[in-house]
Amino acid sequence: MFIEANGCRFNTVSFGAGERTFLGLSGWVANWELWQQPFELMSRSWRCVSYDHRGTGESPVPSETISPKAMVDDLFAIMDKLKIGRCVLGGESSGGLVALMAVLREPERFEGLVLINAMAAITLQTAKHLVDGCRADYPTTIKAFVDACVPEPNSDHIRRWGKNILLRADPEAAARMLESAYEHESKLPLADITVPTLVICGSKDAIVPPRVEEQIAKAIPGAELVILEGVGHAPTMTSPEKVVEAIEAHF
Hints:
The protein is α/β, with parallel strands linked by helices. It has one domain (2-250): Alpha/Beta hydrolase fold, catalytic domain (Rossmann fold, 3-Layer(aba) Sandwich), CATH 3.40.50.1820. The chain contains 10 helices and 8 strands. Strands 1-2-4-3-5-6-7-8 form an 8-stranded mixed sheet, sandwiched between helices. α3 (95-105) links the parallel β5 and β6 (110-116). α4 (124-136) crosses α5 (138-149) and α5 packs across α6.
């Protein structure tokens, strides 16, 4: 369903009717579909919610309105609209930055945190490379990015799916998403996170190497780290069963 919040119209989805709610955030300009396969498995016992965050899928916005802070504000507004008092929050890739900011801002709203190949910051090197590519040749940039995200064999269908998802975004929105994340200069105080945290990463992730996830897990008190062998940057799409197994074992 479409929800009006913070001057934007968001495409939201909800599956299952479990007593506990899991809310998934996707990274960069990926829409809710990155959580589709895990939700198909989890909805047997959870209420699973996601949405196209601003600038992605069916939630287009003027690119100048995109920022991590705006996306955190959107998260809480959507939780309120959907009457989600508390949930387990999942953040995938750069969606992890938004998830971390949200948990630090209002920890009482979250039963737990799941970070999947997550970024706690965007580096200038990463931002400039992709930002320039978005503005010069968006389709070629997306193809190269998705190919790097999905190194798993026999995954041509996943790469095609991923490219189609990302190409739905406006190139300037994609560029702004990265620029605004880089402009978020504050170093997040990961040691202040108090909710139970699970960090999942793929051993073959070329976008956010496992050492980054190891550092994040080490910095968050009591966090559990699960490394999925042979998996790249998009485990919710390529290895949904393993992702769900890790989530349900932890929570």
